[in-house]
């Protein structure tokens, strides 16, 4: 039996919640670094923190899901077992 792909609307809600948590954690992390006087080593090397990178990636996934939800009547990559769904499954669930 084939796995049924998750509903794009359900995934969109999960990704939105994840984005909110990431943004809260970024703020807490920033305050902690500020209070401790420490630099984020990843930000020093790459120019952005790991949380910044995760937020950017999550926003991209959210945009993809919002597009998929809007095109609900048309086939989308979220209705198949291809790239977008695999990427979302591994990051959201």
How would you describe the overall organization of this protein?
This protein is mainly α. It has one domain (8-92). The chain is 71% helix and 0% strand. The protein contains four helices and no strands. The chain has helices at 8-36, 41-46, 50-70, 83-92. The protein is elongated. It starts with 7 loop residues before the first helix and ends with a helix. The mean pLDDT is 80.
Give a nutshell description of this structure.
The protein is mainly alpha-helical.
The total of beta strands comes to 0
Query: Per the principal axes of the C-alpha atoms, what is the gross shape?
Result: elongated
End-to-end gap: 20 Å
Radius of gyration: 16 Å
The total of helices stands at 4
Series of secondary-structure elements, N-terminal to C-terminal: HHHH
The domain tally reads 1
Instruction: Show unreliable segments.
Output: none
Fraction of residues in helix: over 70%
Main β-sheet description: none
**Strand-residue fraction?**
under 5%
Structural class: mainly alpha
Provide the residue-averaged pLDDT: 80
